[in-house]
Amino acid sequence: MREDRPAFPWYCKDWLTSPDRFSMTCAERGAYRDLLDYAWDQRGLPADLEHLRRMLGVEQKEFERLWDALSRHFSERDGRLYNAKQERVRAELDAFRARMSQAGKHSAQQRVNRDPNKTSTEGSTKRQQRGQQNVNRDPNKTSTEGSTKGQPSSSSSSSSSSSSSKREAEIALTAEWARRTQAMYERES
Q1: pTM of the full structure
Q2: How large is the average pLDDT for residues 58-66?
Q3: What fold characterizes domain 12-83?
């Protein structure tokens, strides 16, 4: 089964300071990273060692040497090989994604159920007032009273604000996920 997320978090500090990494040769580190990439993309690795050898593109003797060093990082379950830490990260990401999906559905349902005649936030009330000012503005006036000259129109301000809010929400969610994931790994250490 292919993963619908093409990327996975890679914790450089964990990797660079890992005693396991220090015990691996350069070839073993490269093979390990390739196997982790395949395992993420395919939700595990095939348990068939010949298949793994071909995936790595090495001769039998080299594969036996590599697998002797790397096999302890993978365990077999239901005919597939898994890396325990990677599967914990996957479970955390899946749970985070499910929570965000549920929150989005809840938010959408609230918008559907909201009375369209009521304003829900002060910001939207201010945007409505600015829009009304623009409608009432006399185009022949020379003073700046009632004019929005030098200020963005309400529609561009609204879309800019909306875009900014979405970006801030994405940053906050990413930071929260990173904080929780880091805490999970610190508990394991």
Answers
A1: 0.53
A2: 96
A3: Arc Repressor Mutant, subunit A (1.10.10)
